[in-house]
Amino acid sequence: MTAVTSTSASTPIAANRATRGPGWIRRAIAQLFVGLILVLLVLAVIYPLLWMVFSSFKNNSELFANPWSLPGELRWGNFERAWNAGVVRFFVNSTLVTAASIVTTTLISAWAAYGLVRVNVPFSGPITGLLLGGLMVAPTVALIPLFGLLQRLHVYDSVWALLILYTAFRIPFTTFLIRAYLIDMPREMDEAAYVDGATRTQIFWRLVLPVCRPILVSAALLQALFAWNEFAFALVFISNTENKTLPVGLMDMQSRLLTEWPVQFAGLTMAALPMIILFLIGQRQFLRGLTEGMGK
Amino acid sequence: MASTTTRLRGLVWVVPALALLGIFVYYPIVENIRLSFYSWNAFSPNPVFVGLQNYTDAAADPIFWRSLRNNIAYAVVSLICQVGFSLCLAAVLEEFVHQKLRGVLRVIYFIPAVISITVSGILFSFIYNPQFGLLNRLLGAMGLERFQHAWLGEQKTAIWSIIGMSQWQSIGYTAVLFVVAIQRIPRELYEAAKVDGAGAVRSFFSVTIPMVREMTTLLIILTVSGAFLVFNEVMVMTAGGPSDSSQVLGTWLYRNAFLADNMGYASAIATVIFVLTFAFAILQILVSRRRRVEI
């Protein structure tokens, strides 16, 4: 007991303990202190986002005169202007690349993970190492050679380049995620189907994919988050504005809209919203994917 | 013979993944290391072998060192906030907050992590804006006018402002991971500590910290290697300026490769980044392997 008071005598909690005040007072003061910090933190997190939304309804004079206040009226015109100034195009590109890369990444990864865990693949040890080893490679390091490679493959400056890269660079993580899930699954299930005469391919499509649905959903959500927000590849490998995705397109808009701040805010709001909504709907799957991905 | 072909047919399962990885991940890495020994640019078809020239150039380049220093600053601040503070935050959430509210707070703190760095980067460049930005207004309202800055426009404050934005984005993310780790601690340990007369602070140090050690180690490694890969936010907010004061290795690479067309030198910077992050990755594997053996 003495050790406790001496180590933390400077905090209000400990001071209370030293005078042996009733337990509930100590507790109440601690709660109040902690509560205050938590609320401040909530404000620090949420306020910039609210400010973004509020500002996207303002006009410039309102923004400058009173940046803190609510917008005087809901100027939906800002959103329309941002939408027509390019957001619609970037939105479509982002959606296409995100959706397509979810399909390719999860399918190719699940296919590989199933093969490695259940089928007698030759050299499966080294191959697993190679696939998961990709986790250690940072995209930035590959930028320069990829620049030449994509040009030689005639996919430079097209959404195909992004689709290929978003798939290739996410296969290691996604395979890792699905593999961990499959390892924990009872072997009897697919062995029974195998004995009944189903081929491995049939088992994969009809049994494994449905059974893995929870982890596939997590993998898909994390892929969506990655593809929707990816910046470096999109910056380097796309040059035509028509082909840009949201993250780079927004930067592009910034230089074109210059001082039309509220319109820029509207663009930001539209770009951020889909992922926030997706996260709020699928938080459980998000978190499972993340924590599984960190290794159990 | 038949059995060999059936066995080889098993490769069908891994060929798509291996091919994509081989061509678009592994080949570029190897090629990058090779290219770092050449002097070349996008217009000269014949790269000239220059040995270690690009690396000695880097060693003599003050902006290379400034970039590295900025990456280190990034790592240090991120460690303090995303490991130190996040761990405290997670512990407080678990210890003091009622279960229902806890779920809500966790979701709120996590939201910045799902926003694209471009969005948060541009948003914060507005918050730092000297004309209508919230930060200067806030300082003004508190009577702290002398601390007002053109945050992204001044050499001394630019990199720190970017680092600050990055903490806003990531603290909730690591805190949630810590919450998961704390929830896996057996409740009996806390009960036992309570019986021994330990208060909340004491049991944080004697139970929570030792029991989440693995997650802490993992996050330390990920945070530090992430700090050496920083690119997006710097690109979006300052592109390395003003006067290269906020360059990091990633943006310095980009500038040399795609704006200055100094490809060989840029490849050398990329190789430096690769070696640094690869070392951290190996460290991470060693840590998680040791953990598996312990369990």
From TrEMBL, chain B:
GO terms for cellular component: plasma membrane. The keyword 4Fe-4S does not apply. The keyword Disulfide bond does not apply. One of its GO terms (biological process) is transmembrane transport. It is found in: Cell membrane. The chain crosses the membrane at residues 12-30, 72-93, 105-128, 158-182, 218-243, 263-287. Residues 68-284 form the ABC transmembrane type-1 domain. InterPro entries: ABC_transporter_permease, MetI-like, MetI-like_sf. Keywords: Cell membrane, Membrane, Transmembrane, Transmembrane helix, Transport. It is a multi-pass membrane protein. It comes from the Bacteria. PANTHER family: ABC TRANSPORTER PERMEASE PROTEIN, INNER MEMBRANE ABC TRANSPORTER PERMEASE PROTEIN YCJO. This is Fructose-amino acid permease.
